[in-house]
Amino acid sequence: MYPVLKVAAILAAATILAGCEDLGFSDPKPIAPAPQQPQQARADYMRDLALQADSTTQNTSAVESALVWSRKCSELSQTVVQIQQEKHELEKDNHKLMAQVAKLQDQLTQTQTELGDANAMLVQMREEIENWKSNVLGFRKEMRQAQTAQINALKKVLELLGGEPVPVIAAPEPTTQPATDTTATTRKPNGETNS
Predict the structure, then answer these.
(1) In terms of DSSP H, where are the helices of 35-61?
(2) Which of 13, 25, 73, 192 could form a disulfide with 20 if both were Cys (CB 3.0 to 4.6 A apart)?
């Protein structure tokens, strides 16, 4: 192992004494200067990049300027943290509201279904009431006809038995308003009647 190190050291010394030119290394070539841009183009570019001078840093040292910028950075980072907290709170509120919307949407669907069922039931009840009303009114007519037939039968029985015929007075048609009696008698406080 030591002979390998001796050989490597001898080769390194020979290379140094011979110079690097044989190995293809030479002094670096001079670097050509970059092409000059027109002065106006550089000024426009620099003007766009220029920072506005801050009134607090115009006449201060580098340390004071660094402290001012550090304070501004900390203020901005606090603002960023505050905005992130507000965003997080708004996201939580948004999730809560979305859950409420989903719950209320389910309730709305259920309520609409119940309302539809109730409407159908009301329509059915109205039809049944109309049928009942027509049946009751028809039944009244049948009752009147039956009573008239009974009166006529009684009239015939009385005639057969030798009684005097009683004139049949037709019943007036019922109205929804009460009848007014124009032949009503009034009583005076002493008990006499006035017709």
Answers:
(1) 39-49
(2) 25
The overall pTM is greater than 0.70: no
pLDDT category at 57 given cuts 50, 70, 90 is: very low
User: What whole-number distance in Å separates Cα of residue 182 and Cα of residue 170?
Assistant: 20
DSSP 20: S
| CA dist., res. 146 & res. 140, Å (int) | 10
Rounded CA-CA distance 147/130 in Å is 26
Cα separations in angstroms, 151 against 62, 137, 145, 155, 169:
128, 21, 10, 6, 10
Report d(CA 118, CA 138) in Å as an integer.
Answer: 30
**Per-residue pLDDT tens for 153-193?**
988 888 888 777 666 566 556 555 545 555 545 555 555 55
* Token pair belonging to 155: 């009239």
C-alpha triplet 63, 65, 71: angle, nearest 5°: 105
Cα–Cα dist 183/181, whole Å: 6
End-to-end, the C-alpha distance of the chain in Å comes to 160
